[in-house]
Design a protein that fits this description.
Helix 2 packs antiparallel against helix 3. The protein has 74 residues and is an all-alpha fold. 11% of the residues are buried. The chain contains three helices and no strands. The chain has one domain (2-73). The two termini are 18 Å apart.
């Protein structure tokens, strides 16, 4: 497991996933808990940020996992 956390590809992918999906997830959770001032928000900006960073983040994580497995079994 330590080698996965040491991979730059995986760390970049997780950072992209967190920074890209984080604002949208925060707004969604805040609305569910009643902490957001608008009960029916339209978070277009955070939604677009999530859309643009989700698949590159998944791709980076996949590349990191494949590189680690390739080195282990190759």
């Amino acid at each position: 497991m330590r080698e996965y956390w040491g991979s730059t590809w995986i760390r970049v992918g997780l950072a992209l996933l967190l920074l890209g999906s984080g604002p949208f997830a925060f707004i969604s959770i805040a609305v569910d808990l009643g902490l957001w001032p608008d009960p029916n928000p339209n978070p277009v900006g955070p939604g677009l940020l999530m859309v643009l960073t989700f698949w590159p983040a998944i791709l980076c994580i996949a590349v990191g996992v494949i590189r680690i497995l390739w080195g282990r079994f190759g």
